[in-house]
Batch of 2 targets.
Target 1
Amino acid sequence: MSFTSVEYIFFLLTAVALCRCMPRRLQPLWILLVSCVFYALWDPRALIPLCGATFLAYFAALRIETAAEGRARQIAAYGSVIVLVAVLLLLKDLPRSSRPFDWLTPLGISYYTFKLVSYVLDVFWGKQRAERDPIAFASYAVFFPQIVAGPIQRSADYLPQVRTPQPFSRSLLARGTGRIALGLFKKLVIADNIGLTLNAVYGGVHGFSGAPLLLAFYLFPIQLYADFSGLTDIAIGSALLLGIESPENFNHPFSATNISEYWRRWHMSLTNWTVDYVLTPLRMATRNWNQVGLVFSICANMMSVALWHGITWSFFAFGLVHSVFVSLDALSTKPRKAFFKANPSWKRWAGWAGPVLTFHLVAFGMVFWRARTVSDALWILTRMWAPLGALTSGIAEFARSAGWRSLAVGLAAFAVLELAEKCRPQAPIVWSLQSSPRWLRWSAYGVSSLVLLVGLLLMFVHGSVREPFLYEVF
Amino acid sequence: MKYFSDLLRVVLCMLGALLLVEVVMRASGERFQASFYISEPERGYALRPRAEGWNVGEQENYVRINSRGLRDREHDLKRPRNTLRIAVIGDSETEAVQVPLEQTYFSVAERELNSTLPSGSPKVEVINFGVGGYGLGPQYLTLKEQVWKYDPQIVIVADPIDALIMRSSRRLFFGDSFGAPFFVIHDGNLEFDPQTAAQRNTPTGSNPRQAWTADLMNQSRLLSLVNSARVRAGNNFRQMTAGFQAKAAAVSAFPVDYWRTYPYYGPVNADLKDAWAVSEALILALRDEATSHNAEFWLFMLDMPGQVDPDPQAAANLRKRLGVETLFRGEQLLGDFAAHAGIRHMALAPELTRYATARNVVIHGFKGMPRNTGHLNENGHRVVGQLIAKALRESSRSLAREPLESR
């Protein structure tokens, strides 16, 4: 059941309505049940590894907490983490032909594995206590808004919330539905329209050179951002309606002034996870190696982020490229600071040039992310150069053949979204409305309902031609 | 008073929002399937006069239905002097809403004939009476009730073999017939089947409000969206009931994909024998109706996508799957029948296969669709139009008659 289907909207509304009618103590059980139903609708067989992983993490954490001696705790912690990661590798990351159960594609296995690994390690490191309530814990692993593509929420953040979810209020409803509507807009209007042009190029890159490839180079980061952040918005909005606050995943990534900042703004829940469970432990272990240790830790961290998407040469190249970028950024931090301190007039220019340069570095890396093979990626990067004169005519010609209208709609919608973000009032609109005249309040509710209805009708009518989320497969 | 003033403001805001949504949808190029049909007492449904809008299935194309309910340009009822009129009757392949009017096979045939006939020949005018989903039953009623007011000298029935046979039987008809009539043979005579007879006893004709609403919907993106959602919901419901129909069909030993496979076999079981018998009777009725108006009657058997795959291996695979030696068995049988009944006829599928294979082009389907599926594309229409024009040029008595007598 896709997040952009009308079926999902009805599923969510039913789940929320019944959840809110229940006594609070039954709500975790209800969340667990609807999450299992949501998951089983994808493929009931995929519940087997999910249940197995959940049981393993639950009992491993209890064992860690109750074991008297350090060795037993270590075995429980490291043993369960190794099993969880091995299952992830076997069922998802290996090429399909090498997998032992190639008929099984467990939805969101990366996300629930990362959640469970962080939980086990947090208990092992004494950051939190093991959860006694199996229902609350199982609902953490299988929580349906987050199971498709995150955000990866920590157990310490989720478990207290599921025991006492936020009470239902008009403000919560407005925030949740608004977030879902924003996600649908990003996905259906921006990402899918831009995606039509990109599919035309990436479907056969060797048939293109010059302007179309350059267009694809610049457009894909925008498509991926709209697609993935849209998916996250729907997840966060859905969780909010159930009374659970989720962590944010994006924070204006294209305004980052350097590549390290970009990674602190992009897929934040994953990068925070890898920082906590890969980068920091490695950095601590290699702190005596000085700069070499820093570069080694960064490379290991970026490669784990990249290969988490799948063990392919394209993602390997993606990881390698970002390892180099982030390492260079980390190594040059001190000299850059010293330079700007000595030349303050340059700092203003750097504020402008930084995001532009960072966007280009990101776009460069994303070519490897999107291309089917490294050869395709290299073709794009070497053949996209075109003389300025031929560029505009080339883009116009390509846009005409691939359908300029969808591209224009996607880009215009992206511009509107960015503008709206810039001009957004500080106070939530709902609060401002409460003190507005009656006719304005009613009009606002009426117009919002109309827009939602039109959106639902569009989703229903275009249901059969919908593009899947790019991050759904991970 | 304050309440009503507030209410008025809210209504104005909502109207403004509706207008804005309409503008945004137009600017963003959102298009939805327009409605081109209207209920009609004789044939269940027909093309709605002056309907216009976008066809978005298979290929986006702006379609205009003329003022007399034909998917064609305007034609005077009175035949101009020194003009030979050809009436083309058929189903969705002839209606051809997927391609622009000038690219349809009947337009191609008209241009071909006018450009290749010797000087001094009459001007040829082809009039299209095709309506999507029509079987031979509604086509026969079209000939009887609609065609003669245009005074054509040649009548063409052009359908693929699946439409010619499967749509003659209510039992074999796949999906919703939307009240279209069916015939049966009773005591050797062609009669309406009991359901059609019952429908005709309680006719539900079109009403102006229905046409007005449909026209309004076609002109507004927002209303088209609502209509598309309504139609989709209806289709979903019908699919559910079609599922039940399929189960019922399975009980009577129909293969699951009988709609696609039966047309290749000929009358091999009782259901197909009934359908073939009704089809043959309807073809004879069409011939007699044309002859009684001194018009020349032609039967053109169009093709099905599986028959004209440019890849010989794909055709061989289909033959193997069906367990048949030829994919043209239906055309051969119907051709023999037509020859025996003195009907001028032509099976286009073998010729179209040769064309597609020699040039390695698919003549069915459009961008974004599975290969070689759906209706005739621009290539298909062009070559079908050329083949029909060639056959008429070489064998039509009316075209050979010179100078044309004004009747």
Target 2
Amino acid sequence: MSELTLQNITKKFGAITALDDVSFTVKDNEFFVLLGPTGAGKSTTLRVVCGLEKPDSGHVLLDGVICDDSTPADRDVAIVFQQYSLYPTMTVYDNMAFPLRAPGRRLPEAEIRQKIEAAAEKLRITHLLKRKTVQLSGGEMQRVSIGRAIVRRPRVFLMDEPLSNLDAKLREALRAELKHLQKVEGVTTLFVTHDQIEALTMADRIGVLNRGRLIQVGTPEDIYDRPANMYVAKLVGSPRINLVSAERVDGVFRLTEMGIELPLEDSDHLPDHFTLGIRPEDVHLNPEGKFSGEIGITEPLGVETVVHIHSQEGEIVSLASGLIQLNFGEPVRFDINRDHLHFFNSQGDRI
Amino acid sequence: MATIELRDVVKKFGDKYAVKPMNMTIQDGEFVVLLGPSGCGKTTTLRMISGLEAVSSGNIFLNGKDVTWAHPSARDIAYVFQFYALYPHLTVRDNIAFPLQAQAVKRDVIERRVKDVSNLLKIKHLLKRRPGGLSGGDQQRVALARALVRHPAAFLMDEPLGALDADFRETMRAEIKALHVAQKATTVYVTHDQIEAMAMGDRIVVMSNASVQQIGTPAEVYHSPTNLFVANFIGSPGMNLVKCHYQGGKLTLPGGSVYVPAEGWQKTLDHQLGDNQTVVLGFRPEAARVSGEPKISADVFLVEMNGSNVLLDLHLDDDNIVRIRTNRGVNYGLGDTINFDLDPQMVRFFNPSTEAALVME
Amino acid sequence: MNTPKSKRPEVNYATRVDKVTFKSKLTRNLKAILTVIIAFIVLIPVFWMAATSLKSRADAVAAPPKVIFEPSMEGFIGLLTQRRQVTAAQGLEEIKQDPNLKWYDRVMLNRGQQIVGKSEYVGYLKNSAITAGISTILSVLFGLFSAYAFSRFKVAGKGDLLFFILSTRMLPPIVVTIPIFLLYRQLGLYDTTFGLIILYTVFNLSFSVWLMQGFIDEIPREYEEAALVDGYSRLQAFFKIVLPQTITGLAATTVFCLIFAWNEYAFAVMLTAQKARTAPPSIPSVLGTGGIEWAQIAAGAMGFLIPVAIVTFALRNYLLRGVTFGAVRR
């Protein structure tokens, strides 16, 4: 029910710049994911938004109103942390009631009960309400944390890697639940993660953060299909994008290390030397393919198989669908889909 | 090089089984992955093979010789730990040389072997540094080098990639596999990550609750899981498992859709379960094909962009969600109804009470 | 160990890594026996003291010492009362006839002594309780708040301050007693309970800050931050979220501070005379009154030991965790 805007936020800790002129807007009802490695400034951003940290310059706007000077309590945002988010001395019920009993709200107990029961129902934690939080499993804890945040209907929902401490199966399940809940409840959400799969699957829009700078903002499709630079290209997608150095010789392109020549139409805007990005799914094994190489290792993942192809000095990774059986050292032919190639200049920026 | 055999190996802590009777033979040069959630007994099994943990009963054979009660150092096995276990006060070179010095190998031989192994793992430039300043990936490379330098009969690895971030993990996964392909050393590898297990293992031993659920190649555990646990645990997401009602050769899914299984399956179901029964239908997300005609219909609950493809979470009814994989490019909205069919080759059935997979007759 | 013995003949037990699994009933019993023996050795003096405190005057000095004796409360009663000697000529038998006599009067009359009032020791014990109690509460309270501030806020010169606080502990008390004595005399704090409370509080504070900081550092900030975002003020978050989680640390700190304040001797002997005197300096003075009253001394020591023992016992569950998780890790 509200919009969050960060305007030119800069935050330094001593000599380290944690956030460098970061600006973005999370629209009403939007699920916005900040994606970046450890130390990129993701958590600092969240802390600035909830008022736990004061930016050195720039403004935080909630619904268009500057709220630099309001306390965390006044901002009416809710946060879910990676861990330690439940008060260990209280029961699940009291944990969920805690924000509703805060001085600024202080709802009648009957109303609190009603709200908690409704939220518990939605998150399927009704049977846990009377438990102590120490008796909960990791997944249950995070469910309760989300419940505690949701129950008060905050203006903005902030989440700091809430799924990172859970095991893979649980993470998958909770991911879907959380995303769906967000859509049904319609809460503006700022979600922070280092996991690109989480970002791709959950986000309406993604902001990629590296060393305190916001590099690219866009839909998951934008980020995946049109990465702004090599950093983003490498960050998103598993197996990782192939990045090979290439040069332009007499109108054709030579992938230097692999000794492959690739004809390209309308390539005049490209410099003589550049880096070519090829997603593994755009490298197809094909007995009649133009290029040849040798099978390196193969990694069957289930739905698809990662095939490493060696060609002269270089290696290129292909993603083949299904589980396929290939022998190490076998000769192989393959094609490269030229519709989705990515070009990066020597600075690593997209051309 | 070595074969490893476990014969009725059991580990109990007090009255609790950490590993229930386990039988397995690991062939020379094989890469076997012990896979399971935490607490399933996989690490205990590895530790018993290494001799760091005593068996409660049963025997372990290395190259046909009973080593059940042999000291770890007498087993000629190298162990790689999750947290590297490098000695912080020694340089990388001395860390790698350490196991050789313990065996009183000659100086020049040590030099040569350290050089060879550091070339192999591309850590030559790090030899004079101390482990403290290295990245996680480099530390794990050093740990691998220290294991390799002895030319042990077998490698035991306990979640060696568990402490690395995702980026490094993918690289190291390929590196370890390449190393194995080149060296062909018998390896037992423990992980909780099914992707790692699938990508690396010649065979996978799926464990849960102290017992072996299935032993098989990646393709076997992926396509023909022996029970519900394996079906759900392998794959990301796991196999869709839907309780259906079977009557007169037809399956009624939750939400009312009707699916007619192939004739072979009909016979099997009639035979093994009987008519008018509940059965669990299993299919992988990629087994579904979105089609125009109403086969199985369900409502879109969530659309998950997954890079090269899209996962759709579909509601059959309020309690049953299935996930199917489709190509990118089609936009689905929440609540849209989708019809899909299943690839008959990829349909599996499970007995809901025993949880075991049915085998087509 | 289900494997038939014949199946593993070449077992070399000396090289076994995992000896734990061989923990048999025998070793477990041996452990228990060893524990009992050690406990016995450690507790002999305590037992001796307890026994002596319950002995009559004659039994207390008997040689060889009596292990089996008729228990008597003489020691305790003697410690807490003032008496006068009554001889038969002075009408001992008549006094014994008085129907208003309490049981403790009779005990002493059998020794030919008549109770005439409370001893000074009762007052000293009261002083001890007040001084130790209040100073402990104060130092734990101040320690808690300072430690919280040190742990959570940017305090200018934090490291120096912490070292400075600790440095107050480096001098042995005996070295500073003279200056403090002079200071206290000037300020009119000599021989006042108030003065002693201030001194003990300050002296314990350094310890309490360091110990509590260890505990508070271990409570993740996220808890309070979640509470702040949930709509609470810093102070409310402290009381509702942090405080309940510091109970362990508070208990450990309390016990350590209490033990120090309760046992303190050097300051007490120098800075008090009569009015504010605490128990520790007064126990030896029992020695003085007419022959060595071993039973009384033992009773004094026992009476002194019991309160601390009770508090420690009551808080024992917190203590072990407190000691191992808190300060030791710093």
